[in-house]
Amino acid sequence: MLQELRHALRALARHPRFTTVTMLTLALGIGSAAAIFSVTDWVLFRSHRFPTDVYFVGGQWQDHGFLPWRYPAAVEAYRHQANISADWCLTERLQGNVVVNGEPVATSWIGTNANLFTMFGVVMERGRGFVPGEDGASPAPVAVVSDHFWRTFLGGQDDAIGRKIRVGDSICTVIGVVHAWESLPGFFANDVYRPKNFRFDQKEPWEMVNLMPLVRLKSGITPEAATAAFSAAKYDRPDWLKQWMTDDRPVLASMAKINETWRADVYWVLVAAVGILYAIACLNASNLILLRMLGQRRELCIRLAVGCSRGRLVRFLVLQNGVLTLFSALGGALVANWVFPLLLLATGNSGTTFNWLAWSLDLRVLIVLGGLTILTSLLVVVIPAWRVLRADISGGLKDGGGALGESRPLARLRAGLVVSQAAFAVILLVGAGLMVRTFDRLREVNLGFDPTRRIKIEGGFPTEPLAGEARRIRLSEICEHLRHIPGVVAAGFDTNLLLPGYKYTSLSIEGADGKNLPITIGLFTAGYQDAAGLALKRGRWLTLADNTEVMVNESLARTQWPNQNPIGQVLRPIEPGTSSGEKHGGWTVVGVVGDFRSTVRDAPGLWVLESPRFVGSMGTCIVKLSMDYDEAFGGRLRRDLYAFEPKMVVTRISPLGQLRDQQLQLEHMADSVMRVLAGIALLLTVVGLYSVLAYSVDLRMGEFGVRVALGAGSRDIIRLVLRRGLLLTVPGLALGVIVSVTLSRFLKSLLFGVSGQDPMVLAVVAVTLLLVGFAACLLPARRAIRVDIARLLRSE
Known about the structure:
25 strands, 16% strand, alpha+beta
């Protein structure tokens, strides 16, 4: 084995071009697969790592689907009466400024029972988590921070443990840093955690909007049994609560609910795409190894003639290809960590979607690399080994013998490999083209406003220090203060109307057909129209004096009053807590605004905009700037607001264009990855086509010499080579297009404004592959027309 290993290494060293090309081919395939695995690993393969006996406690809210059960008195009643739990944990996302070194930072915090981290098995990178008792009647002034918070705001230093930070109105000591590899489910992920004592009054079942209850079931208790126990519990819910929660009792939802927001279909498409690229790489490597074996045919036949068994010869081939694949895997690690990210950056992806630096340390990725190495070494040696086992020794020893040479079946096999590569490349090219068109269409969606030089300040007030008229006046003062900051043109508060990233309905109105029509209520302060840039289509803007007047968006106007003037029409909302027969006195429509988007993909929705005198739930502020936004300006703005109103919490400042791009993050990722995979596939296809044509030209040099001697011109020779290339490219193109059109239905959920059979994409792919195939034919064709007639005829 050692002798054969040394011989394999020498054989590879003697043929550097073959070794280099094959290694690069396999490195691109293995590295790309490892890279995509790193992106998809968490969503597709590790989301189940959360404890399977821990569940959300929630219910069904109208048509909105499952929501956490946010009524504290109800939670307390079910907790004590339903004997199904081994542990409960309550958390609440709180508002209040987090201040480090005297400056507010862009985050909020979560108040939680002390057992949150132990319930999910989350470990600390530094320090410790909470211990029992720290969430008592007087919660301990301690905090646990995320790895991101530690690196961004605490300098990533070891002395962070023991540092003092202000969390809301309390000075807290940092006692722990959550490990970078650990995370909590999406609803519970945050930068700062504080212990909190949850004390509820059974007589006050009011909603806590951000309450998130968790339960760990006792051994042997199923979710169905737990739900039945909840149903048996006695809790007299108020009528208004029955109206909002249509289920009579809470239900349980597993951690798999989180996956619904991850759009796993995008990640499965990436896995399928990189699987196709990996297949192309293996086919190409097999073709190159077959070509190399054809050059060794006499050596292999001599080995068989002097007594070498076929099994040992196959073992030698496996060993040689195993060494080749091992070096390719090392190159694949470089591709995954360096080349692939650079290629993504070249496509315009900023890299924020991918945590490239963490990949090299991920043991799972290293295991995947090892598995791919073994699988690849087996796949690429199958055809050469099968060829050796069927070799005719006597024929191979004759001059010009073809026992291991290019027989007709072998020629068809190698041609079939190239056709398959071309077909796979077409599939990736079509997929990339569809994603490019989709991303372009999404970027061109009319948002209903111009996001340029407009930012959204998200936050609010930690409690309700101001209400009614006093709160409205204070918000007006904040807007006025913002307008005097250099660089600010206009400012106005709203109820998160522009690109919140989700759609919801507030209540129902009486529709034109007499049925209930779900709508969404929006509120804004004076000056908002200038800050947001919404288009007034008809009528006028609301004023503070308007009591029963409202504005509607175009979609609601078209739905409710088709082919009519909506100005002066009356909307009749159905109040929550009343039967559908009891209706509101009505709102008079005084203005129509252009449609604006909550999400980029979804339709604008049906909106009613009420008078700015209602300001209680406003938590976002839209600011129009006279310059482009940068992080330095954001820091100055946050500090200025904190100095003017310390009670106002600023959790995030985002340009509206950035919010749009964040909503398209998955599409951007798929677009960038598909472009890179398609480009690599095209390159490998060119290499495969070139190798077949180059070897075919070498075999036919004698024929070309005779043709030239009998009067054939250069054009005739070139035509023969190009014809051979087209016979390999066109079938692969046709097969790839057919398969792509068939598979396009699986991309339907990802596409936007484009069909899976888009003729422009198919035409561009066809032209691209034909041009690339033509380019791959040129070099072998040039070699063919440079044939030395005299030398060839003498050898004959």
